[in-house]
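This section describes the prediction task in plain terms. A model, or a person checking by hand, is given the sequence of a single protein chain and must write out its three-dimensional structure as a string of tokens. No templates, partner chains or ligands are provided. The sample shown here is typical of the held-out split.
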Amino acid sequence: MKIVVIGTRGIPNILGGVETHCEELYPRIAALGHDVTIIRRTPYITDDNRITEYRGVKLIDVYAPRKKSVEAIVHTFLAIIKARSLHPDILHIHAIGPAILTPFARLLGMKVVMTNHGPDYDRQKWGKLAKWVLRTGERLGTKFANRVIVISTVIADILATKYGRNDTDLIFNGVNTPTTATDRSYLDSFGQRADRPYIFAMGRFVKEKGFHDLIEAYISSGLNKQYDLVLAGDSDHPDQYSEGLKQQARDAGVILTGFIKGEPLRQCLSHARLFAMPSYHEGLPIALLEALSYGLDVVVSDIPANQIPVLQSSDFFRTGNISDLAAKLYLKLTEGELRRTYDLSPYNWDNIARQTIAVYNTLICK
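The expected answer:
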């Protein structure tokens, strides 16, 4: 089977939940004997990832303007044209922004699978026009894609209620089973002392991730006197919010690592005392699943996407409520568990790859 993937910025080692999803999923599909090509956006190609193949997945780079408001739609249009020249059996579009061009792909005769990673129009970074485009993308992708994959029951319910699409395929995001790190040289390089426990958080530096709330709660609780806060991540497009967040972090003595993966991330997750996710919006957060895979105790916002079955009511705080977040952080650090065991079997990437191929096969067999 020949599969072409668009909608992602690209792989490998490119910041983003969709990007992490694709980096884990498609090498597994390629390893099962399928021909997979991912079309990447040129602004995210660096000397570190300027390659034409990654773990059996072919990589093709297509132009995208380095401008937040038009990057996705311009690139998706060009990527669909490129994809058509490759004559795929399946075109897989990720996210509702790129999905606005699903009808165009269908007009070109391609069979389209669309994965809805969540209602991105709820993200605080978007203006009115961008939110309209995203809502339109959700509607057109849902209506015109041959098959629609959703990563959570919350998204499935949205599409059933708004558009009457009741035949979506629920396939979760996944997580690997890690080997914890004993080495802490990366943490040492930032001056994070082994005798000082720390809270860990990671994600893109955009407002809906709520990191500004986390920093404020960290200070107001007085935890900064005994605990560090390590924040991993950065922004795709530096703006007033991301620069202000970095300044807020520096003023509060927060350790900023920048965007990390691989061994640096493994060390940060292995040695953390607590994981925090104060988001206002998520799809099914891979960052949270990664923290759970390391057995970390967690404090997360009570948005529907975060309420996965393996968590307990004591793990949640009221979204946007800084005093509640501060209280939960304090309680977890003083009375919570050092390590926990979670059943993450529904989030196995190998099973997810097989489930995705099964969706493709429903179209190939027609």
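For orientation: Residues 119 and 263 are 32 Å apart (CA to CA).
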